[in-house]
Every structure is written in C-alpha cells, then in structure tokens.
Specification:
The complex is a heterodimer of chains A (about 575) and B (about 725). Chain A has 22 helices and nine strands. With about 575 residues, chain A is an alpha/beta fold. A four-stranded parallel beta sheet of chain A has the order 7-6-8-9, covered by helices on one side. In chain A, strands 3-4-5 form a three-stranded antiparallel beta sheet. A two-stranded antiparallel ribbon of chain A has the order 1-2. In chain A, strand 4 and strand 5 form a beta hairpin. In chain A, helix 3 packs parallel to helix 12 and helix 6 runs antiparallel to helix 7. Chain A is flat. Chain B is about 25% helix and about 25% strand. In chain B, the strands form nine sheets. In chain B, strands 10-11-12-14-13 form a five-stranded antiparallel beta sheet. A four-stranded antiparallel beta sheet of chain B has the order 5-33-32-31, with no helix packed on it. In chain B, about 35% of the residues are buried. The N terminus of chain B is likely disordered. The chains are: A alpha/beta (about 575), B alpha+beta (about 725). Chains A and B meet through helix 3, helix 8, helix 9, helix 10 and helix 12 of A and helix 9, helix 11 and strand 30 of B. Chain B: Pfam families: BOP1NT, WD40.
C-alpha cells in the first residue's frame, strides 16, 4: 500500500546537529583535545530551534554542534598532530619507564609541534577581519605578559606575549594611532584606531597576580597560542605597512645609539634588547629611511549640498585628529619612579612627547631630572623634596584626561597634592536624555574654546533645562494632569458640603454668596492635557501583545529617566 | 683459681679502678683525644711513629706492671710475667710480618667498648686464646696523687685501656705527640714543601708512559657498536626515529600571511558570526569616578545580596584619590577566562533587534473630539442616601431618577435639579430598582430581600398615573389563579404602604437580586441566584398577576438577565456564559462564551444585535451576535472588577462602572452593514466617586434621551455626568 514507514529523526533538523560527545567520537579525540580544536578553529555550539526534535525526543540538556562544522574539522591537519602528540607522550612515558635516557632525549628533540598559520588565514581571510578580532588577542597577550614566570604556563609563552605586546605598543607609537585611554579599577583601557578599526584593549595594573584556582589555564593557554600567532602576523603586516623593520629594531641614527654594531647584534637576541624596546623611549628603524611622512591630504571632489557639508565635517574631524596626534609635541616629560612608567611612556610617546625617567627605574632613559628643559614632571606623591621652578609638577591623571579631551587641559587641577577632578570614561557617548556628568560638560566647554569662568551660568542653564524636562516628564508620565484641577474641585465641593450641612442642621442658615473666582484657562496646557488623554485612551485600546511590548519599552524609558534624575541628587 | 670472696673484692677494686681510670682519663683527656684524633686522621703515620718506639713502651709497660704487681699478689705476678712473655712473643711476631698497618693485636677482642668486660676478671684474649687478666691493683686517688707527686714520669704515663696497663711514653713518642698537636707531619724527615713533579704535563713526550703493547680489540671494530648502529639505521629507515629537527628561528616565524586573497575560504566565511565585543567601560568603572556614580549604602547592600548573575554591575565602583593607591583588580583573570569560555562555549545567533518606536504601537483611533456628544464632566451630585446605592434607574421620560440603597429606602430624584422628590422606606436593603420602560405607565419595580415591590410613585401626568393604576387594578378584577404557581405569592399593599405608593408585593421563595422589565412594560423578570435549584428566574406578568419559571433545569448560577428590546428573546447570564433563549419557541438559540471568570452585569444594545457584559475580572466583552459566540472585543480598561454596564438608547455610547471608582464611556458605533464591524473607541474616563470599603461605582445608567450618564457609588451618592 503505502511504501516504507518513515522513521523518526532521520531527516530534518535532527540530522543537521550532532552532540558534543558524538562529535568527539567521530573525531577520535579526547575531550581536552576536542576543546582545543574547537578553540583554535573557532567552532562554537549551536542552539537548535527545536531542541527536542534534534535531541531525538529527549529533553536532556546537551550541547549541539552543527554537523557541517564537525565535518569541516575532520579535514583539519591539526587533528593528526594531536594524535601524534598523544603517541609521543606514550612513547616518552615508556622511555621513562625503561630509564632509556637517550631515547627520552631523542624523543624530546622530536616533539611534534604544529603551526597555526593556515588556521589564522582560514579564520581571518582578510587582514581587516584579523584586525577586527584583535581586541581579545591583545587583552590576553597583555595579561599573559604580566604573569610571573612560574607554573601556570610556559615561560616561552610569557616571553612571546611580552615580545608581541611590546611590538604592538611600538607600532601604535610609530603610527600615532592611540585615541583614548581610560584608567579603570580593572586596569588601563586603551583604544587605538588602526586602519579604520577601533581596537580596544585593557592592560592590568602592574601587580603580581593572585591566581584563582577555579580557572582552567589550559583553556587560556590554548587561546593564547592562537592569539600570539594572530598577533605576530598582524604585527608583521602592520610594521611592513609603516615601512618598519619587522623584528623591530631601534633606530640607530637616533641620539640614543648604543656603542657598536657587533656588540649590539650580539645582544639582539637577549632579553636586554627586548627591554630596550619595551622602554618605548626610542623610535624604530625603518626599512626605507624617509625624512617625513607626507601628510595625508584629502582630495577635493567637486560636490554640492549635503555632500559638501559631510565633506566639511570630515575634513574638520581629520584636522582635529591631526591636532590630537601632536598633542604633546614639544613637551618634555619626566616620570617619577612611583608612576606607572610603561603606560605613561606609551601615552606620551603616542602623542609626540618626549619622556624620560630615572636611570634606576628602567633602561632607556634619555635625560636626567636635572634637565632644565623639562616642562612637566609626572609625580604621584603628596610632596616632593627639591622642586625646579620652570616645570609643572602634575599628577598622572592629567595626561590621560588631556588625551581624552584632545586638548591640553589647564594644569591647575592636577597639581601636586591637589584633589583630582573625577576621571571620566571616554567611551561613554551620551545620547539625548542621558545623564551627563557636570565634569563632562565642563570639558566640552573647554573643547569649544570657552573659558572655565562662566561655568556657573551654564550650570544654571542646565538646571533650568532639567527643570523643564522634569515638567514635561511629569505631564507625560502619568495621568496626573488633571489632578490639580480635581483637587480644586474637591475643595470647592467641601465648601459646598459644609454649607449644605449647615443648611440641614440649623434651618436658620446664613445664605451667603461667595464671589466666584475667575478660572484662567491655560489654552496650551488644556490642549496638552487633551492630547495626553487621547493617548491614554488609545493605549487602552491596544492589543494585549502590543500593550506588553509598549509597557516594557516605556518601563525601560522611565527607569532611565529616573536614573538620570536621581544621579545628580546624590 | 679464684675464690668467690676474692671475686667480689676484685670486682670492687675494679670498679674503683674504673673510676680512677675515668678520672685519669679526664685529666689526660687532651692528649688522649689528640691521640685518638690522630689515629683516625692519619693512621699510617701515627702507627709508624708508634712502631718505631714500640719495643720501649712494651718494656716499660712490663716494668710498670711489675712494680704494681709487686705490691699485689704473687699469683698475679706470675701470670703477668707470663703475659709479658706472651706480649714479647707477639712483639717479635709483629716485627716478623712488618704489618705496620695492622691493628694492635695484643688483645684480640677488637674495637669494642671495654666496659663490656668490666664484670669479668679478664679484659680479653691474647693471640693464643688465653685470657688477659686485669692487673689487680687498688690504685685509689691517694695512690694516684702520690704517684703524681712522686713519679717524675707521671706526665708521660698513659693508661692503655686495651690491656688495662699504664704506659710510659718514650721521648720519641712525646715528640711525635707534640708534633701532631702542632699540626705538623709525624715524620720529622718529611719535607712538605718539596717541588711538585708533574707526571702528566702539557709537554708532549716522545715516549709513551707505558710500554704496554696495544690490545687486539683496539684494532677490530666493535661488534656491539655495530649492532647498535645497525639498529638505529634500521629505525631511521623505517621512520621510527626522525633526524633531529632544525631549530626554527623565531624571527622568521611571521610573514605576510594575507599577501594573496583566497576566495575559497571567503565562501565559507560568509556564514561566520564574529563574536560580539566586550562592552566598553562607563564612568562607573573609573578609578576616580564622579561621586554620583559611587554606591550608596543601600545600593551596596543590595549589590551584596544579589546573585552575581543578577547584578547590574559586576563590581563595586570605588574611588581612589590618586593613581598610586589603585590596587590590582582581583577578578581580572576571572573576567578574561569568562570571556574565553564565552568565545568557545556560547552558541551564537544573529538576532534582529527591531527598534520599535513606542508611538507606533499605539493604534490610530478617531479623535474623541470627533465622536461627541458624550458625557465629559460631572455636573450634578445627588446626595441623601446613607448607605451605598446599589441600583439606579431613570424614568422613560428622562425626568425622574429612582435609586435603591442599602439604607432601606428608595428615593426619587428630579434629574435636572437633583432634588429628592420622594423617599420610600421599604424596610430592607434594596438590591435592584427598575423603571417600567413603557412611557404610558409610571411604575417602578424594586427588589429587596425576597420581595419584588411594584411602586407607583405618581410622578407624572394624571393620565399616566391613572393608566398605571388601571394596569395594576385591571388584574384585580380578573381571576387570581396565579396562586397556582405555589412558590410566588402576589399581594396587595395596604394602609400606610399604599400611601407611600406601594401597590403590589410579589413574594419570592428566595432572595431576589435583580429585577428587569420587558420593553412593553407588562412583563418583568426577577433573579434569585441559587446554585442548587432550577428556580432561579421568574417571569411575572403584571396584567394577569401571573408568575412562571421558564426553566426546568439548572444551568448554573444565574448572575443577571435581560429581555431583548425588540424580539422575544431572553438573555440569561450565568457565571461564565450568556444563554439566549427564544421565548416563543421555548428553546435556547445561542450560548455566548465570555472568556471571563465571573460575569457581573450585562447590557443589550437597543438594536438587539450586540451585547456587552462586564465581569469581576476587570474585563468588558463586546459580543456581536451575528458574528460569533466569542467576544468580538475584550476591553481591559478597568483596574478592578466591573460592576455595571449600560448602553445608551439613542447615542452610540456605552459605559462601564468599576470598583476602581471610574466610569469609562466608550463610543461604540454599530453599522447596519453586516460586513462592517462595530467601531469601539473609549472616549472618556469619568471619576467622581470616592472609594469606600474597596467599592467604587456600583451601577451605571444612561439618560434615555440626553448623552448623560448616571452612576451610583458606594459613597452613597449618585452622580450625573453631562
């Protein structure tokens, strides 16, 4: 009659997904290896739409991968390497057991390794893709480079991370692409604009880490493995884009020239060279020594109307950016030993300043405290012994605030021992209706070129604005609109009632005619009220679903408004 | 040889001896120790030195022994002598063998603690296996002292534990000891500063050091090595061993990976979802945030109470006065790890976020302004009742308003002046009042307790009053077979009640909750809600004074009833549904599902095709009888239970009264065109009643001709909104 009976779960979504365990079995890998493979290849689980169908009728919680992904993994050459490594470990164990030391040595020398180049290429087919995804890589490398060289992960990894991060910082300095810096309680956030991509990374403060026990360092190490490879390739490309020598070399014709070439070369591979690089005080060697970068000039296109405006805006922005890049140019900084040297040196050099520090703090200091041309000395202690007259003694926050404000802020607020103004996040972009901290308004005024003298007026204005807003909100917020009127009426009624009572109690009542009051009708207000009521009535007629959505949106909005209103009251 | 007594004596003496020995030892300790040290340090030399003067010492020993023995027993002396001979023999022996590095073997016990022999008369055995007896002497401290004083050799006398004898050191021996104590070589002739002759020097000599001919094996290749090499070669051939890998240079590891674009990978990459970036930090996270971003105590407490997953911020904002005070963030590694987990464990999904403008969600309705007239303001309040006003009704002319209250009175008001024209005390809480809709009569039905009263308020033209009187009295002349019904008793009002306007009393078996008139004004129906019997609804005919119970079966608790305004239909609302009966055919035509939990009130559109029904779960449902048995529209305008609903007779308005103290007037246009659905627009929310005992507005009714609405509330007032 009707052919074969259709079997369940043999077509449709059930065949598109595979559980993690089955995937593991298919790849013949142990769980850690599978995990590593997923991390390296960027395979993540998928949430099927109909879990029960995919799970063949069971509702047990399972992780599902796309079958296509797993098939894709099957062809990965690294899987073979994993197996090889497994065998290597087995052989090594055996050799140890038999105490065949020569065999152990030989095996060790031939430890199977793998390269991730093809994976990088596959995951990031274009350079821009790689740049877009480099945030996490930078964060991770910066974290690993601060690890102590004990346990937790291989020393080589830490060294490599350190090298790559130093290379990255040197690139950012050379390209002057740093845009924003933020001192948070977690660490220091930096944001750079590299090839049009905004790249943000966070560097922890320089302290030894309290390694938590509930963190799986193998996972982190696997990520780092991938990220170091990625970062290396990206650095190479970035360096070559700026005509810099890739394993970065210090510019030899700079004033901070080391003695002889041969000796220098000898020291090239050692850590001291890396340290010199990481001092960030000297510029890098270029492949083609160019005298000056030609300024990027926007070509003029014949345009009209809106395009014109846009063009102008863009030009203006570009100009501003250029100005920001030269923010610290001509300034000479000296870092006291208690300030975070690396961060400050990085920031100062990124904006064209000159920087030095005490010789005993780090290698690569270029001038001494006694240098009379120093304009700013960065200091973070309540008082200082000997002060030079011709320089500012300021706290480190000034630098960061200047970078975020894109102008040189007045130094008075940041002098030695002065209570610092709040440090604001440069990443917050206030939309309309959001709360703007007064400090930000002040900064914006400064940016516009206004003097800080008239801030009070502004504040007042603000308050007024806020007051207006509040009023509006009140009107909008609830149906309190006509309550006031109601109250009046109620009062009147009360009067009437009293009179009535009097009338009913004592027959001999004094009939009294009170003069009527003229009610002033506020037309605008009435209109508004009417509109509000209309809206309210229309809301009543909403469908249940839409009402729910509407209520949700309005709840969010109201909460925001409330927050904005309560914040400055604290 | 020995006697017991002697033995004990011996023992004692020996013990003493021991003590002395110890003292002696103590006194001579440095020398002794030195000797010992030297023994251990450089045995050979010491022994050699001792050997040199060995004979002397022995002799001296012997003589010493002799002296002692002289003062002791003869037997012992004899033995000693023997011993001396033996030792002499032994000495010769030593010389014969010239075994200078052998032990002192006069006593063969070996290197053992000598106290093991302290209980024995002997201290060991000589080479021949004979016992060496202890010298019997009783040298006490006095003897020792005397010895020290008298004997010039005392300082060089050493006690030999091994043999138990005192040895006087010779001059050579003393010299040796002195030399050793000074840290010099024992041998006087040894020159420690001799020039070194290098045996293996940097100079290549022409002759070999040894003249030994080379082995044969040095000419023949090694077999074992050959085996090993062949094994390795085989392993390399088979690929088991790989040649040493070339150390790859870290510098050349990176190259321009993106030199050429590969389109094959791009195809796959189209499906790729990049992981979302970590949100950027706000002002909260600053090390020195503006003070308003710091937590207050309450917020902090709340933060600590909350589950980490529910927290708005994963950290507590902190303020540090300077950068150097900022500590490490303890959760830094954690956060990075969490991010890692997110990257490889979280399913990713592209989510289309619709940015909805909330204004767009609000439906576009005609403006209430365009739908006028409708009541907008409270213009009159009717006061006079002392209890909550349960029910109101307007006379068909629109001039009078009747209200029944819990204070046991029915009041008649003039609508325009809000004057109470008449008050009738009926003696019980009035549940329902209903004005006869027939304009040619002026009668009011009042339901209280288990009675329905018919009142003739005489508030109309004489003619109308007469006609209503006639209607009431007409049946009197007719028969009175109505009694046959049994449970319902009709009776005439008398005396005082008659003066008040009371005309008829219809006694029901149970409490009556509602009374309604038919549009013609001859029939009226009453409700006695009771879940247990089918006697819940009665239809009374006034002209014939007859009552009948139309239903023979209980279909649920009846809440309210209504007559169809035009056709012979009868609406019965039970808890959850409304049944429509055809009174002519005596069958149920329709059953409306209200989708609400408990119906409170019901009103029929004057056209007769629409029904609204309010329920205690705040809903108002509009039924289009031609459309479906399901509500055409459910309105959830009220916050609390809906108590009353009403249609206007002429205008397209309906109103609903609720416990939240508001009356909502809606515009509800009904079109004659069957295809067009009714348009329902709320036009006004009317407030005017005060909430008392959680009750707000109890009844609502429209003016028959004007767009006015009356509402009666629990605050004992009636309001007129115009």
């Amino acid at each position: 009659m009707g052919g074969l009976q259709k079997k369940k779960f043999e077509r449709g979504s059930a065949t598109n997904y595979i559980t993690r365990n089955r995937a593991r079995k298919k790849l013949q890998l142990s769980l850690p290896d599978f995990r590593r493979l997923c991390i390296l290849k960027g395979i993540y689980p998928h949430e099927p739409k109909h879990k029960k169908k995919v799970n063949k009728g069971s509702t047990a919680p399972r992780t599902f991968y796309l079958l296509k992904d797993i098939r894709f993994l099957l062809h990965e050459p690294i899987v073979g390497k994993f197996r090889e490594y497994k065998i290597f470990v087995r052989k090594l164990k055996k050799a140890y057991g038999k105490t065949e030391w020569s065999a152990v040595e030989r095996l060790r020398e031939n430890k199977p390794t793998y390269k991730l180049d093809h994976i990088i290429k596959e995951r990031y087919p274009t350079f821009i893709d790689a740049l877009r995804d480099i945030d996490d890589a930078l964060c991770m490398c910066f974290l690993f480079s601060t690890f102590a060289r004990t346990g937790k992960c291989h020393v080589q990894t830490i060294q490599l991370c350190r090298r790559l991060t130093v290379e990255w910082m040197n690139y950012v300095i050379a390209s002057r692409s740093l845009r924003k810096v933020f001192l948070s309680i977690k660490g220091i956030y930096y944001q750079a604009e590299v090839m049009g991509q905004l790249i943000t990374w966070v560097v922890p403060y320089q302290f030894s880490h309290d390694h938590p026990v509930d963190v799986d360092y193998r996972v982190m190490a696997t990520f780092t493995e991938l990220y170091t490879t990625l970062l290396g390739f990206v650095s190479f490309r970035l360096y070559s884009s700026l005509n810099l020598v890739y394993p970065p070399k210090l510019d030899s014709n700079g004033e901070s020239e080391p003695k002889e070439e041969s000796e220098d070369d000898y020291a090239m591979n050692s850590e001291s060279y890396l340290e010199k690089l990481s001092a960030l005080s000297a510029s890098l060697a270029r492949v083609v020594s160019s005298a000056d970068e030609e300024e990027a000039q926007l070509d003029q296109f014949p345009s009209e109307g809106e395009d014109m405006e846009k063009m102008e805006a863009r030009e203006k922005e570009l100009k501003q950016q250029e100005a920001q890049k030269k923010l610290f140019e001509g300034l000479k900084f000296y870092l006291n030993r208690e300030v975070p040297r690396e961060s400050l040196a990085f920031v100062i050099r990124c904006f064209g300043g000159q920087v030095s520090w005490d010789k005993s703090v780090c290698i690569g200091s270029t001038y001494d405290v006694t240098d009379e041309t120093i304009t700013h000395q960065i200091i973070d202690r309540p008082s200082v012994g000997k002060q030079y007259i011709n320089r500012y003694y300021i706290q480190p926050q000034w630098l960061y605030d200047c970078v975020n404000a894109k102008i040189l802020l007045p130094v008075e607020d940041y002098f030695l021992g002065v209570t610092l103004p709040p440090h604001l996040s440069p990443f917050v972009e206030e939309k309309e209706g959001d709360y703007v901290p007064p400090e930000k308004l002040k900064m914006m005024a400064l940016q516009r070129g206004e003097k800080p003298g008239n801030e009070q007026e502004e504040d007042e204005e603000e308050e007024e604005e806020e007051g207006e807003q509040e009023e509006e909100e009140e009107q909008e917020e609830d149906d309190n609109g006509d309550e006031e009127d109601d109250e009046e009426e109620v009062a009147e009624e009360k009067n009437l009632k009293k009179m009535e009572e009097q009338r009913s109690q004592g027959k001999s009542l004094h009939v009294k005619v009170t003069p009527g009051k003229l009610k002033v009708e506020n037309k605008a207000r009435l209109e508004q009220e009417e509109k509000a009521e209309e809206k309210r009535l229309a809301i009543m007629m909403m469908k249940k679903k839409e009402k729910y959505l509407y209520d949700k949106i309005m709840f969010g909005k109201k909460r925001k408004v409330r927050e904005v209103r309560t914040l400055p009251l604290r | 040889m020995k006697k017991a007594g002697g033995k004990t004596a011996l023992k004692r003496s020996k013990e003493e001896d021991e003590e002395q020995n110890q003292i002696f030892n103590f006194n001579r300790k440095p020398a002794d120790e030195d000797k010992d040290d030297d023994l251990s340090d450089s045995e050979d030399s010491v022994y050699s030195g001792l050997e040199d003067s060995g004979s002397d010492s022995e002799e001296e020993e012997g003589s010493d022994d002799d002296e002692e023995e002289g003062s002791d027993d003869n037997d012992d002396k004899m033995k000693e002598k023997k011993e001396g001979e033996v030792s002499e023999e032994k000495k010769k022996h030593e010389y014969e063998h010239d075994s200078s590095d052998e032990e002192d073997i006069r006593n063969t016990v070996g290197n053992i603690p000598m106290e093991w022999y302290k209980d024995f008369p002997h201290i060991g055995y000589n080479l021949d296996g004979k016992k060496i007896y202890k010298p019997i002497r009783n040298k006490d401290e006095l003897d020792d002292f005397l010895d020290k004083m008298e004997n010039p050799e005392y300082w060089r006398t050493v006690h030999d534990k091994q043999t138990g004898s005192d040895v006087v050191l010779s001059d050579d021996q003393v010299e040796l000891v002195n030399r050793l104590q000074r840290g010099q070589f024992g041998d006087v002739n040894f020159n420690e500063c001799e020039p070194m002759v290098e045996f293996f020097s940097s100079d290549v000599m022409i002759h070999p050091v040894t003249n030994r001919p080379a082995d044969k094996r040095s000419f023949i290749p090694s077999l074992t090595e050959k085996e090993k090499v062949s094994k390795l070669v085989h392993a390399i051939k088979m690929g088991w061993i790989k040649p040493r890998r070339v150390e790859d240079d870290g510098r050349g590891r990176y190259y321009n990976l993106w030199a050429s674009e590969d389109s094959s990978i791009l195809a796959r990459h189209k499906m790729h979802l990049p992981a979302p970036k970590i949100p950027l930090p706000g002002h909260h996270e600053s090390y020195n945030p503006p003070p308003e971003y710091l937590f207050t105590d309450e917020e902090r407490a709340l933060w600590e109470q909350q589950d980490p997953a529910d927290r708005k911020l994963p950290f507590v904002p902190r303020k540090y006065s300077s950068l150097r005070q900022v500590p490490a963030f303890s959760q830094f590694i954690h956060e990075r790890f969490e991010r890692c987990l997110d990257l490889y464990l979280c399913p990713r999904q592209r989510k289309m976020r619709v940015n909805v403008n909330p204004e767009d969600l609000i439906p576009q309705l005609p403006k209430p302004k365009d739908l006028q007239p409708f009541p907008t303001t409270r213009s009159l309040v009717y006061r006079g009742h002392s209890g909550l006003v349960r029910s109101i009704s307007v006379s068909p002319s629109g001039q009078w308003l009747a209200s029944g209250s819990d204070d046991g009175s029915v009041r008649f008001w003039e609508v325009c002046s809000s004057r109470c024209m008449k008050t009738v005390q009926v003696g019980g809480a009035v549940k329902s009042v209903a004005w006869n809709p027939n304009p040619s009569v002026c009668l009011l039905a009042v339901a209280l307790d288990s009675v329905v009263l018919i009142l003739s308020p005489s508030l109309a033209d004489k003619q109308v009053i007469l006609s209503s009187e006639r209607l009431l009295s007409a049946q009197q002349e007719g028969e009175e077979p109505a009694e046959g019904n049994g449970s319902v008793v009709w009776s005439e009002a008398e005396g005082e009640e008659l003066n008040q306007g009371l005309r008829l009393k219809i006694q029901h078996p149970k409490a009556v909750h509602q009374v309604v008139w038919h549009a013609k004004g001859d029939y009226l129906a009453s409700v006695m809600p009771d879940n247990t019997s089918h006697l819940q609804v009665y239809i009374h005919q006034l002209s014939r004074r007859r009552s009948q119970n139309p239903f023979s079966r209980n279909k649920g608790l009846v809440q309210c009833i209504s007559f169809h305004p035009i056709r012979p239909y009868f609406f019965v609302a039970t808890q959850r549904s409304i049944r429509i009966y055809n009174l002519v055919k005596q069958e149920m035509t329709k059953k409306l599902q209200t989708n609400s939990k408990w119906i409170s009130s019901m009103a029929v559109h004057p056209g007769g095709d629409h029904v609204i029904c309010g329920s205690y779960d705040c809903k108002l449902s509009w039924f289009d009888l031609d459309l479906s048995t399901k509500p055409y529209k459910m309105l959830r305008h009220h916050k609390k239970a809906v108590r009353g609903v009403a249609y206007h007779r002429l205008y397209p308005l309906f109103a609903s009264a609720s416990d939240d103290g508001s009356v909502i007037v809606c515009h509800g246009t009904v079109y004659n065109d069957l295809l067009q659905n009714p348009l329902i627009v709320p036009v006004k929310v009317l407030r005017g009643h005060v909430m008392t005992h959680d009750l707000g507005v109890l009844d609502v009714t429209f003016h028959p001709t004007q767009p006015w609405v009356f509402s009666s509330g629990a605050d004992a007032t009636i309001c007129l909104f115009t």
